[in-house]
Amino acid sequence: MAGGVLPVIKHLPGHGRARVDSHLELPVIEAPLETLRAADFAPFRALRHLPLAMTAHLLYPEIDPDNPATQSVKVITEVIRGDIGFEGCLMSDDISMKALGGDMSARAAKTFEAGCDLVLHCNGDMAEMQAVAAVAPEMFGVRAERCQKVLECRTGAATRLDPEQALAELDARLRPVWQRPG
Question: What is the value of pTM for the model shown?
Answer without folding.
Answer: 0.83
